[in-house]
UniProtKB/TrEMBL annotation:
It is a multi-pass membrane protein. One of its GO terms (cellular component) is plasma membrane. The chain crosses the membrane at residues 7-26, 32-50, 62-87, 93-113. This is F0F1 ATP synthase subunit I. InterPro entries: ATP_synth_I (IPR005598).
Length: 123
């Protein structure tokens, strides 16, 4: 399970740095906005992933560790959004939210890609 979670985070880091590099060609504010948007997705996801993984290994008691990890992820995401909106000026909203959404889509794309690869390997 650690390998699957780690793969998602590696792809997220790659996508975040790629988008920020492309935004750097436009403007410096767009580049740091892209990194901030990516970090708002990446950091809470990393927290949730490690918390869920640790709890599953320690005591396999069902759904509670997953729900606690996801609740912590939600709270951390909200706190980071508030911090960025209050503290960061100027903020390029398009690159900020674009990177955030792109990293959210990685949560869907990586497992689909792996499942598709396994399906064709079995043929």
């Amino acid at each position: 399970m650690v390998r699957e979670i780690g793969g998602i985070f590696v792809v997220q880091l790659f996508v975040m740095l790629l988008v920020a590099s492309l935004c750097l060609l436009i403007d410096f504010a767009a580049a740091y906005s892209a990194i901030l948007g990516g970090l708002i997705c990446f950091i809470p996801g990393l927290y949730s992933g490690f918390r869920i993984q640790r709890k599953i290994e320690d005591d396999n008691n069902g759904l509670a560790p997953v729900l606690i990890g996801e609740l912590g992820k939600l709270i951390l995401t909200i706190a980071l959004f508030i911090a960025v909106f209050v503290l960061v000026k100027p903020l390029d909203v398009v690159s900020f939210f674009g990177t955030f959404v792109a990293l959210q889509l990685v949560y869907i794309a990586v497992p689909l890609f792996k499942a598709n690869r396994l399906r064709y390997r079995r043929r």
